[in-house]
TrEMBL record:
Organism superkingdom: Eukaryota
Chief localisation class: membrane
Name assigned to this protein: EH domain-containing protein 1
Subcellular location: Cell membrane; Endosome membrane
SUPFAM superfamilies (alphabetical): EF-hand, FYVE/PHD zinc finger, P-loop containing nucleoside triphosphate hydrolases
Region (Disordered): 41-83
Length: 724
């Protein structure tokens, strides 16, 4: 008998239950005597071989008993009376139930044998993971973590769960990997001393939401996508890496508009793999991500890593993967976002043909997974080439993510800038063709001072810079909500796609002429769209582009698609109407609790409340509060003494403090400046107060950027013990 199939044995015959009320691999064996019967649970592999020479069923008879049919079978043996004692695999009694003889009870209830799940219920008829129906060959198993029922394929693992004792129990695939994924999402490159507790809380909240969203997608949306070849028509299937990834910023533009310099400007340092110059320097897609050390990972290696969101890039072939790299470096900004630098768009058919891959298709793949799309223009080059036009058209379905950046605006005067801005809007109006106005940011986004020509616009540039940074700053805070939004859009498209395929399939002939009929249907898709829209009361805005759908249809035979199951649609609708709103509600409740304390890493600073006289150490001679409050001082003191300071008084050398300071992810130039400012005594070592000041400056630089570190310490930054 196969493992995982609970059975009941009486005498020399075995009755197999379908597993509706049993969990894991347990066998209940009844040994009947004149007065009692003992039920013992043991591994199925042991019980299956007992009494029948390992063959399983004595006499070769096997009968599957449903709940509804179990009572009559049991009532035949109720004349003698039973005393049922449940015993676990170690011989310990679990439960005792008495049945009076002649009382004609309705049989031993299954609830007395196994505790029911409080989630999903033992009456579940389909797997919560793949939505496959349970059957004789596909038994159900209870996940002891989420209390849902899964098939053996979706619950192949066992793990320790504290509430379930010290023995590993069966869990589903999502729960088995949940802790690993949550740890990976919540991991930051720097030590927790530099990470705000509310930021960690946001990361944990995001990880929990993504885990729930991943479960909904795999159980209720992915089955329809696979059945109707959704990935052949539109985007590829989502992987765990897609749900676990940080918010992504995609930069697009013609060559030498400042895309790479913009990334360097945000990171405040060089990054591995960067190429900057007036000529077309960036000749590949470069994803800049967080990592423990600075390195460049080739595209082929990055695409096979399941922990990265780039696994589905393999569909573009080796020619593209050879032009794709992942740049890793420790950075406080990359703790929160991932940036993607793209090759400069050229104005010529020859360059497009010789790329070796479809540039627009790759950009579309990144756009679908990006949280913000920045299209950069040079103030001196406003022409929109054919390839840039096609790229913007590809990005049109993601208009809500697009922001326009007019870069290098400091190289022109105010009057010229006004004309350039008008020309840019005119050019975009002919390409975008949308009544909504795209947000345009104007400035000079690089690490050099403003040009003299643009000095008159410095106030405008500063305001625009702050607006852009605020927009990027909000990305980590709302990442979970945006991914929920993207999944809803994908699910609506998958629903319409399945209804369309099912509608067209129903019109196909049974015997011959299928090719000609499919060509006719593909030629009048607009008419079929209207029929499906009226039949199912759908919005026309949810329907795919006819040309795109027609192209996908050309490589498939409509007769090969399965008939759409009403249950599959009901399952998907349940996910959209119940599960996802529940996730959104939990996100909202959690967000409301921490909104007042939320901090982010891109151009922001958390201002401490100084209204409380006990919030900071006061220097009563100057009446100036020290910027390091008492709580922070205690935290930095703990870190100080954990590094084993020496001497009297205790001090840390540069070698001892080096590791902690490097863990901040700041550039070496910034750390050198912070050390010089903190070493007030100029003795080459840091005491406890100087170390606390250094940690405060590092935290400020992580939040506001390296430019926030002052050139000279103000009085409020000098420790009271160092003030004269």
């Amino acid at each position: 008998m196969a493992s995982g199939r609970p059975v009941v044995s009486k005498g020399n015959s075995l009755l197999e239950f379908g597993g509706d009320d049993f969990v894991d691999d347990q066998v209940i064996t009844f040994s009947r005597s004149k007065k009692n019967v003992v039920a013992d649970t043991a591994p199925a592999s042991v019980a299956a071989g007992a009494g029948d020479g390992g063959g399983g069923y004595a006499g070769g008879k096997e009968k599957k008993v449903k709940n509804s049919a179990a009572a009559p079978r049991q009532s035949q043996s109720q004349q003698a009376g039973y005393s049922v004692a449940l015993v676990d695999s170690k011989g310990r009694p679990l439960k005792m139930t008495s049945v009076d003889s002649g009382a004609a009870p309705q049989g031993v209830p299954l609830e007395a044998l196994v505790t029911k799940s409080n989630g999903g219920g033992p009456q579940a008829t389909h797997c919560a993971g793949c939505s496959s129906p349970f059957s004789f060959s596909k038994s159900k198993h209870l996940c002891r973590s989420c209390n849902s029922y899964f098939c053996s394929k979706c619950s192949p693992h066992k793990k320790l769960i504290p509430s379930q004792g010290d023995v590993p129990v069966r869990v589903c695939d999502v729960c088995f990997h949940a802790d690993t994924r949550r740890d990976r999402i919540c991991t930051v490159s720097s030590t927790s001393y530099f990470t705000d507790p509310q930021t960690l809380h946001r990361k944990e909240r995001h990880a929990a939401a993504m885990e729930a969203l991943n479960r909904v997608y795999k159980a209720k949306i992915k089955p329809i996508e696979q059945a109707f070849k959704f990935s052949s028509f539109y985007a590829s299937e989502l992987t765990d890496g897609d749900f676990d990834s940080r918010p992504m910023i995609l930069l697009v533009g013609q060559y030498s508009v400042g895309k790479t310099s913009f990334i360097k400007y945000l990171l405040e340092r060089d990054f591995p793999g960067q190429r900057i110059g007036p000529e077309p320097t960036t000749d590949r897609f470069l994803a800049i991500t967080n990592g423990p050390v600075e390195r460049v990972v080739p595209g082929n290696a990055a695409a096979v890593d399941p922990n990265r969101p780039f696994s589905s890039l393999t569909k573009f072939g080796t020619a593209f993967l050879n032009r794709f790299e992942v740049s890793e470096m420790p950075s406080p900004i990359l703790d929160n976002v991932t940036m993607v630098d793209t090759p400069g768009i050229l104005s010529g058919e020859k360059q497009r043909v010789e790329r070796g891959y479809e540039f627009e298709d790759v950009v579309q793949w990144f756009a679908e997974r990006s949280d913000r799309i920045l299209i950069l223009f040079d103030a001196h080059k406003l022409d929109i080439s054919d390839e840039l036009k096609r790229t913007i058209e590809v990005l049109k379905p993601h208009e809500d993510k697009i922001r326009i950046v007019l870069n290098k605006a400091d190289l022109v005067g105010p009057q010229q800038l006004m004309r350039i801005y008008g020309a840019l809007m005119w050019s975009l109006g002919k390409v975008v063709r949308s009544p909504e106005v795209l947000r345009v940011y104007i400035g000079s986004f690089w690490d050099e001072p403003l040009n003299e020509k643009g000095a008159l616009n410095s106030t405008l540039f500063e305001a625009e810079k702050q607006d852009l940074l605020s927009d990027l700053r909000a990305l980590p805070r709302n990442a979970a909500v945006r991914k929920v939004n993207e999944l809803i859009k994908r699910a609506r498209l998958a629903k319409v796609h399945a209804l369309l395929i099912n509608h067209l399939r129903a019109k196909m002939p049974m015997l011959w002429g299928s090719k000609e009929k499919q060509k006719k249907l593909a030629g009048r898709l607009e008419e079929e769209y209207l029929k499906v829209q009226r039949e199912h009361n759908l919005a026309l805005g949810d329907f795919p582009n006819p040309e795109k759908f027609r192209a996908g249809l050309s490589v498939h035979n409509l007769s090969d698609f399965p008939k759409l199951s009403n249950r599959q649609m009901d399952v998907m609708e349940g996910g959209l109407s119940k599960d996802i709103p529940k996730i959104m509600m939990e996100l909202q409740e959690s967000s409301d609790a921490i909104d007042d304390f939320e901090t982010d890493m891109i151009g922001s600073v958390r201002l401490e409340d100084k209204s409380n006289p006990f919030a900071a150490t006061l220097d009563y001679a100057s009446r100036e509060a020290w910027v390091v409050d008492s709580n922070s001082k205690a935290k930095w003191d703990n870190l100080f003494y954990s590094l084993s300071p020496t001497g009297n008084p205790k001090v840390l050398s540069g070698t001892q403090a080096r590791g902690v300071m490097l863990n901040s992810g700041l550039a070496s130039d910034t750390l050198r400046k912070i050390w010089d400012l903190s070493d007030i005594d100029q003795d080459g070592v840091l005491d406890a107060d100087e170390f606390a000041l250094a940690m405060h400056l590092i935290s400020m630089a992580r939040n506001m950027g390296g430019a926030s570190v002052p050139d000279e310490l103000p009085l409020s930054h000098i420790p009271p013990s160092k003030r004269s």
